[in-house]
Design goal:
The protein is mainly alpha-helical. The chain is built from 17 helices and no strands. The protein folds into two domains: 266 residues, no CATH class; 38 residues, no CATH class.
């Protein structure tokens, strides 16, 4: 970009721009596909909630604004702008897009024989959609995005930044997919582990921001290539602002993520409990007893002893218990 930039102001959020062609093509293609898929699904008599379409549209609008307006215009001049743009593309845009349930829409449109369903159910798809994979990616991405030469490369070669925008949204989609995919049914154990890792990551995720905020020297070669103006802050001060943005924004975003994981954990636990109850009811029916819901007190006569833990009726265990008592 050759035209001089004025000092950043609030009005610049709407007036400053720097068009990004790949983002425009991606938004046009995704919007066209989503609208066509919704039209096909509803034409077959299925209902598609309007709220999902609104959230998907908001995700596309935020992606376009992030990659083509204020943040893209000031990216070559301010490191904290690079940090803000990266966090939005990695953590917020994918969340809005996937809340629109495009994967479920693709499944409804093409069925189980479709490419999307086959990829998600493949071994690689199940691994990437595991709730444990996403939280592990965030610290690694922070090291690459904020402490290496990548920001400088993007300033020197804008097309590389265009490709990086798409890659960030794709990787962010892998991070949030286990939290919002309506057709994914992870076990309560897997989601519980994800919640434990996410709680630990809430503390760990603050480290990159703290390092940027408190480091007394520059940690990236971005400042060797950035555009400078009369209003430009000092290099170290710019890095410290970026550290504050990384620290605060990432922590604020982590909390809703943990709430989503906790909600998913409760649903998975209830689903697993219902499946276990169904198996027990089937076993009681096979033994000639009544299901829990039909028996007085919830358990049929004679079933209580049959459902007792094995070690209560095992002779060896009963003998050991007598010796201890």
């Amino acid at each position: 970009m050759t035209r001089p930039l004025p000092a950043p102001e609030l009005s610049g959020l709407l007036t400053q721009w720097s068009w990004q062609p790949l983002a425009l093509l991606a938004v046009a293609a995704l919007g066209w596909w989503y609208a066509r898929a919704v039209r096909k699904v509803t034409a077959n008599g299925r209902r598609w909630p309007v709220g999902r379409s609104v959230l998907f549209g908001l995700g596309l609008a935020l992606f376009l604004w992030t990659t083509s307006r204020f943040l893209q215009a000031y990216l070559p001049a301010l490191f904290w702008v690079w940090t803000t743009q990266t966090l939005i593309l990695l953590l917020i845009v994918p969340l809005l897009l996937l809340f629109g349930q495009p994967l479920q829409l693709a499944r409804l449109r093409s069925g189980h024989a479709g490419l999307v369903h086959r990829v998600l159910r493949s071994r690689a798809g199940r691994f990437l959609a595991n709730p444990l994979v996403g939280p592990a990616l965030v610290p690694l991405l922070s090291a690459v995005l904020f402490f290496g030469p990548l920001p400088a490369w993007v300033v020197q070669a804008p097309p590389l930044g265009w490709l990086l925008h798409l890659l960030l949204v794709a990787v962010g989609g892998l991070i949030v997919l286990p939290l919002v995919d309506a057709d994914d049914d992870p076990s309560s154990l897997a989601v519980g582990l994800a919640l434990a890792i996410g709680s630990f990551e809430l503390v760990l995720d603050a480290i990159p921001g703290i390092a940027l905020r408190l480091h007394a020297t520059l940690v990236t070669s971005y400042f060797d290539h950035r555009a400078k103006y009369s209003w430009s802050p000092g290099d170290l001060h710019d890095q410290q602002i970026a550290g504050a943005v990384r620290w605060c924004v990432a922590e604020l975003i982590d909390l809703p993520f943990l709430l989503l994981v906790f909600r998913r954990w409760l649903r998975a636990d209830a689903r697993d409990a219902a499946a276990a109850d169904a198996i027990l009811d089937a076993e009681r029916t096979a033994r000639g007893g009544l299901p829990d819901s039909d028996a007085p007190g919830g358990v049929a006569a004679g079933d209580e002893a049959a459902d007792a833990p094995w070690w209560l009726s095992d002779p060896t265990m009963r003998q050991r218990l007598r010796r201890r008592t």
